[in-house]
Amino acid sequence: MGNVIITYPGTDIPFPYTIDIAEHPEEAAPFLFTSIEGIKEAYNDLVFEDLINTPFTSIDPIQESEAVPQQMEWVYTSALEGEPYTQEDFKGNIVEQFNENSPVSFEDAPEAVKEQIETGTLQFWGTYTAVGEKAKILVKK
């Protein structure tokens, strides 16, 4: 999957600068509120259209409905601040969680487990970008 760039919420127009949210909350607020609304609406539309597919889809749709919008908002917010949260960052967090919660490290895990984590990471990230594109807050480069 290619890189993504953020847009002015609700458009396909790339956002050309960054905003330090802590220093300029009044400037960032309209982007954040609009992106959150767009993400929620886009996620719900994609669920209704049966276009959401993550490892949580069939086992925990409530957790999925919380995790997907939250992660997508992190993707948008981090890019808005000029420190993009990437697919590699996301995978690193998944591997870290695996290492913290498993008796075996990711490096020593069976190949099938590694493939399952890789597939899950791709499914989640694909879902995040689909939601972001539908919400018109990001475009793929």
The strand count comes to 2
Mean pLDDT: 91
Number of domains as seen in the coordinates = 1
Biggest sheet, spatial arrangement of strands: 1-2
Strand portion: under 5%
Largest sheet: 2 strands, antiparallel
Order of helices and strands: EHHHHE
Q: Low-confidence runs (pLDDT<50, min 5 residues)? A: none
Q: How would you classify the helix and strand content by structural class?
A: mainly alpha
* Radius of gyration using CA atoms only: 16 Å
Q: Give the termini separation.
A: 9 Å
Helicity range of the residues? Answer: 55-70%
Give the overall form: globular
Number of helices: 4
What's the short version?
This protein is 59% helix and 4% strand. The chain has 141 residues and is mostly helical.
